[in-house]
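dumping the sequnces here before i forget
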Amino acid sequence: MNMKSDSAMRPKILVTVDVVLLTVDLESSLSDGLRVGLIRRDAAPYKGALALPGGYVHPEEDENTAAAACRVLKTKAGKAVRYLEQLATFSGPSRDPRGWSVSVCYVALEDRETMKQWPADLLARVDALPPLAFDHATLIGAAVERLRNKASYSALPVFLLPDTFTLSELQDLYGRLLGTPLDKSSFRRKVRELGFVEEVPGAFKGGQNRPAQLYRAKEMTTFDRTI
Amino acid sequence: MNMKSDSAMRPKILVTVDVVLLTVDLESSLSDGLRVGLIRRDAAPYKGALALPGGYVHPEEDENTAAAACRVLKTKAGKAVRYLEQLATFSGPSRDPRGWSVSVCYVALEDRETMKQWPADLLARVDALPPLAFDHATLIGAAVERLRNKASYSALPVFLLPDTFTLSELQDLYGRLLGTPLDKSSFRRKVRELGFVEEVPGAFKGGQNRPAQLYRAKEMTTFDRTI
DNA sequence: ATATTTAGTGGTGCGATGCAACTAACCGTG
DNA sequence: CACGGTTAGTTGCATCGCACCACTAAATAT
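..and the predicted 3d for all of it:
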């Protein structure tokens, strides 16, 4: 196979990035509260439709696709994101009507408070998605699956909470993601011994009842997984 | 940001796939025995250097990047591969001297017997890699990490063994990948109850000593992971 | 004071896992 | 042909982690 002719006859491939920006609404008691940040497309194709924030990779300004994803988020959301991770790459001739396309998809996590800036009508529940442009529903499905999966063995979900949070909030979050209520005692023991949170000395969240100790995330931890 | 001008002024991005084809040599007692199938490049850049099997995505014939990876493997190895999984996508302006490139990287697993077809001098130990073209050493590192990781919670490693194998061989393999010797009793109990292998009735592997029952893989299984 | 609600801690029984001893089957050797 | 060596495969036990449940603590409301 000749490399030169291979390169010369190569048709154009569209190279884009898409970001699944996830957050969680701990107030909503029904469902898991997971929400995804969308945009409304202002150009063809799918003009006027809802879609994931995304766009072309700009070789002259992007250092790599992760940088492109950051740039997209910054222009569409006006801020740097808390956590960003590459999810997977989707490709094919028919997923974009403009031609054969490759989309490197990223998952971003943000807490609900910060996401207040995002227009409320563009924050869709992931368990009741509106019609979306391209194959974006698939990308969201993959992102949510990844997040749920990582919840079972990592500290990743802390990025869905504000800087400080109570252990009850953290437990509630894990319970939602894992789809099963967790035991208070076991959860606290686990979290403590894994040491991915630390107390904020003297900081308490007071409500109607007994005040709760506030915590903050320490380092990112991935737990052991044994066969 | 105007989509049309965005698209029109878009410089060419090289879109390629690379495959990290892994196998394991259970004979080699030192190290873990993991090996990666390489090719020797017959064209610039890096002409004559060792590299991963890979190549351009061909939009007119490839249904997606996974199909491109299969095609690359078929042309370079002459056969379909046992297991193929997308690893990650690597990108940037400097990883390929020809220009800004995106490489969708795949991990492939094959058993040692089948890999006998691969030229022996192109089957490198992953813990002692020769100098490689592009950033391919990085891709191999990521692939090996992924494999080791999945060994701790999935049946994935069975794809590194022939169709039938003994439980001792399977245990040896897991022990190598996990980097720690496993207990015979516990391992067998686990494998049995997870049920991802089944006996081949009446088939035994006879050596100098007591013959061992042969097993074959059932369905692909991923185990539970709990926080 | 007392009820209510949420925060947070301790104890206990069961199941999974690790460890070690045991049996089984084959081969080679004197 | 008995015996030792080696690998296959099982069984029993002891221990550790974890789910479950009961308890105490601190606030508010009436």
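Chain A has two domains: 13-151, 156-217.
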